[in-house]
Amino acid sequence: MLSEDVLTYIENLIPDRPPYVTKIEEYALMNSVPIMEKPGIEVLLLLLKMQQPKKIFEIGTAIGYSAIRMALALPETEIVTIELDEERYNQAKIHVKDMGLDHQIKLYLGDALLLSEKIKQHGEFDAFFIDATKAKYTKFFELYEPILSENGVIYTDNVLFKGTVARDRSLLKTRRQRTLVRKLDEYNKMLFTKEGYETTMIPVGDGIAVTRRIERVRGV
């Protein structure tokens, strides 16, 4: 992970965001809503601009920050996003509407593991962005893999989880933490060994995994 001095230096290089985007960042800080760190979201947006996906599926809307940033960066891209928490979902709706992006961003309220049939009605997606419950990352991947397009890319945030995936799990304080880190470690290892995919990991923000489909496995 990068030092605080380096992170501060990088953040100071990032151009100012639109005023309303800054307002959402301030709301997240004041209300303890986790959103992507500034260097992390900038890397994600650059990768997406290079990929130019027509449709993105996001698991974990929160208050709409990343969906809005993606929509602004890719004005021709359709974004479908799902959020489990009703309060955050309602706040995301407000932000999306205020930005005039409700024609581009489709929001769903509910558990991504239970609403797959609704999501699949949108057809194939060129990109997934997974930024939700870390212990369910593998289940999200397995459930939605069939609707990832040929050469589609899966972007997964928080895969380093503040560096805990690289530490001795016995040093973690609670059983819940140990279980979460174990499942996240299993997910990371699955990404790097998954047949038909290639993965790299970028140690920016809280860690972003970039996984590209290189061939369809028979039966998928």
From TrEMBL:
Q: Per the database entry, which stretches of residues form a coiled coil?
A: none
Superkingdom as given in the UniProt entry:
Bacteria
> Per the UniProt record, which EC number(s) apply here?
2.1.1.-
Q: What class of enzyme is it?
A: transferase
Gene name of the record: trmR
- The protein depicted here goes by the name tRNA 5-hydroxyuridine methyltransferase
* General function of this protein: Catalyzes the methylation of 5-hydroxyuridine (ho5U) to form 5-methoxyuridine (mo5U) at position 34 in tRNAs.
Annotated binding of Mg(2+), by residue: 131, 157-158
Name any Gene Ontology BP term. Answer: tRNA methylation
Q: Show the SUPFAM superfamilies listed in the entry.
A: S-adenosyl-L-methionine-dependent methyltransferases
Residues that bind S-adenosyl-L-methionine? 36, 66, 83, 111-112, 131
Q: Name one Pfam family in it.
A: Methyltransf_3
* Organism of origin: Bacillus weihaiensis
For this chain, the family text in UniProt reads: Belongs to the class I-like SAM-binding methyltransferase superfamily. Cation-dependent O-methyltransferase family.
Q: Where is the signal peptide?
A: none
Which reaction equations make up its catalytic activity? 5-hydroxyuridine(34) in tRNA + S-adenosyl-L-methionine = 5-methoxyuridine(34) in tRNA + S-adenosyl-L-homocysteine + H(+)
Key words, A-Z: Magnesium, Metal-binding, Methyltransferase, S-adenosyl-L-methionine, Transferase, tRNA processing
